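Title: Request for sanity check on Chorismate-binding protein prediction

Description:
We are preparing a figure and want to confirm that the structure record we downloaded matches what your pipeline produces today. Could someone re-run it with the sequence below and paste the raw structure tokens into this thread? We only need the token string, no images.
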Amino acid sequence: MSQLLIETIKSLNGELYNLPYHQSRFNLVRKNFLGCTDTVLLKDQIQVPEECKNSLFKCRVLYSEQIEKIEFLPHEYRTIQCLQVEKNDTIDYAYKYADREKLTELFSQRGDCDDILIVKNNCITDSYTANPVFFDGNEWWTPDTPLLAGTQRARLLSEGKLKVCRITLDDLGKYSKIGLINALQDLETMPLMDVENIRR
């Protein structure tokens, strides 16, 4: 069996969110990384259990050439008030691997901060589980150098609610706020903090 990959989908009150974006990434990974030629439709494979239809859950789809496991986990938003910069010029997470050992190793070095902000070749990439977005007083921006281009990021870019540009450590002073978006948190529900709360 090939290396396991994962799709994490927001399930709120029985509704699966951003499914077209998850399907698109799922298709690309199966074709380009796993060499699959068949089509597997997530909407046909995922059935939300009755006991998971009254709250917020994280739907985890584990797969290689075929779907190996689908599970629903209760989700609560973490409080994130401080980010620790972690520099690593060799880390690679181009695909959403189930094995997050290298990311977890960086996360363990956060000290008394709540999360990390990974910098690769002086460019801002991602936090432990999210794509960062920065507010300049007028618009939201996200780095053009993510380790993993998330589905929420893709949706917000396509809707024109987010713009993309190169953001280095030296650029942080151009922004006032930083938020963290992922499949379960968008611009309305993401943790938000002052850029000054990024520790270098």
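Thanks, this matches our download. The longest helix spans residues 19-33.
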